[in-house]
Every structure is written in C-alpha cells, then in structure tokens.
Write a structure and sequence with these properties.
The complex is a heterodimer. Chain A contains 1 helix and 6 strands; from the N terminus they run αββββββ. Chain A is mainly beta. In chain A, a hairpin with a 5-residue loop joins strand 2 (32-36) and strand 3. The longest helix of chain A has 8 residues, at 7-14. By secondary structure, chain B is mainly beta. Chain B is 9% helix and 48% strand. Chain B has 1 helix and 9 strands, in the order βββββαββββ. In chain B, the strands form 2 sheets. In chain B, strands 1-7-8-9-6-2 form a 6-stranded mixed sheet, with no helix packed on it. In chain B, a hairpin with a 6-residue loop joins strand 3 (41-45) and strand 4 (52-56). Classes of the chains: A mainly beta, B mainly beta. Chains A and B meet through strand 6 of A and strand 2, strand 3, strand 4, strand 5 and helix 1 of B.
Chain lengths: 76, 151
Amino acid sequence: MATQSNLYKAFLGLLPQRPLQVGTVTAVADGLVTLDLPGGASIKARGTATVGQLVFVRDGVVEGVAEALSIVTIDV
Amino acid sequence: MLPRYPVAPWDWAGVTPDLELPSAPVVVEGVQWQSKAAYNRVFVRGDGAGIVGQVTRTGTAGEVTAPMVVDQLITAAAAARQRGLAVLGDTGQQAAVSLSLPVLAETGLILPGKFVRYVDGATERLGLVRSTSLAWEQPKLRQTITLETHI
C-alpha cells in the first residue's frame, strides 16, 4: 500500500463537488430562478435575479451577478 | 511550474518519451483503474475580469460539457487553454500504474512531469509521471513512480 494515492484526496473525491458556475437567467418564478448554462444545460436555483442577467450559481443558490466577458474559442 | 499535461493525452502516440525503461529492473507494484466521464468541452471563466474560454477537444463535436471552471487566474487565452486541457485531459479510461525500480545512474530520480515508456508484458505503454517516492533500505535505494496512462 506504499504507493496508494493521497488518502485525503481520495476521501475528498467521495464528497459531492460544488462547482461555481455562471448562467443566464431565463425565468424567475416563486423565488426560483431558471438558468441556462453554457453548453446547453438548464438548472433551477434559489435566489433573486432578473431575466437576462448573468449570475453566479453554486449548489443551487444564486450567489451574485456576473460580468459579461468576451468568449474565446480554443481547440486543444 | 509544470503544465498538467505537456501534451494532450490523445496526442501521446507522437510523444518521444524522456525515459524508456526496460522490463528487467522494473516491478509493477499496482494498477489502479479509473473510468472518468468522457468530457470533450469545458467552459473556463475568469472571475471579475478576464475571458470565457470555450475549450473543445479537437476533432470532437463538444457535445459533452464538463462543469464550468471559474478562476480569477483565467485572464488570457493561454491560461484558459491550459486549464481547459487539464480538465479535458483527465477523462476517459485511465490506469494509475505504480512502478518500482532502483535509482540507477542512467535514470537518476524520475520526477513528476516526465514521459516514461515501460514494457508491460508484450506491449509498451507510455505514461506521465505523477508522483515519485524513495525508499532506502541498505544497501538498496529504490524509487516508486506512479504513471498516469490512458487506455
């Protein structure tokens, strides 16, 4: 077992990831915000926002307004 | 600072390894199989300022999108490219292979970030060194390296 990967990292890998994402608000109803993520996915989050806004979202909660940044297309 | 992937894993066929290990001194200590999501597109985004990078694996439609990465350091296309490659490279079928071998004058200490080709039975495999450890048991000095290989 001398060469197993870092146990703490392996443990962290078991926990759910909570990435910070950015989406465009498409609908607001009953305190739920519907967001379109780049790539086509659509999610719902709690919080306040207005339709058309770009917002940060993490773990189902709107965290704040995001800036519109220019998009660069990269192939790797 | 080392890039996470000096060359994208799908281009490893054309890589000249830094070291070629013959089978004789090398002992395979363990293989850890990993199956990861086959993402081929990721959006990486600056926080506050910077750019949004839409990073796609060349030759794919980019229809499987990885969770977005938001990082303050993504301010230029070069940074977005490296971060995107780190996400897209760590996908698909992989094996973390641990090799144990003596510290020879020819190889020295094999440090992370080197490409190593080793012989596995009848086939040759190429891997990227991810970790190195040393063990000194008089009179032997052995190193154990873990390679990231893609199948």
